[in-house]
Design a protein that fits this description.
The protein has 102 residues and is mainly α. 68% of the residues lie in helices and 0% in strands.
Length: 102
């Protein structure tokens, strides 16, 4: 698949991210992340720092306080990771369009 089609697919994932940010659905975000990684497989190396940035996102809080409702903390971490993913994807698109990444 050519880079233009892969970039188009990435851009569609950016649009989906906005919808995902408004709801906390772990199965949907897992699928979204996997699909983004599949697209990136055709664009950049798995060893790329940008690939690894997406790969390491967990979309949940690493800190759980026992005996407390952690829902808000998880949702904030979820939204923060979606924003980080979008930023990284935008950087990848910029890098490819400007021949900075291969």
């Amino acid at each position: 698949m050519d880079n233009n089609k892969l970039i188009e697919l990435l851009e569609s994932k950016l649009n989906e991210a906005d919808d995902l940010a408004n709801s906390y659905e772990s199965n949907k975000i897992k699928q979204w992340k996997n699909e983004v990684l599949m697209i990136l497989d055709g664009l950049i190396s798995e060893n790329s720092k940008y690939y690894k940035q997406i790969e390491k996102l967990t979309f949940h809080s690493a800190v759980i306080i026992m005996g407390e409702d952690n829902t808000e903390s998880h949702f904030e971490s979820y939204k923060r990771d979606i924003a980080a993913a979008k930023s990284t994807i935008n950087s990848i698109i910029y890098g490819i369009k400007n021949n900075l990444l291969s």
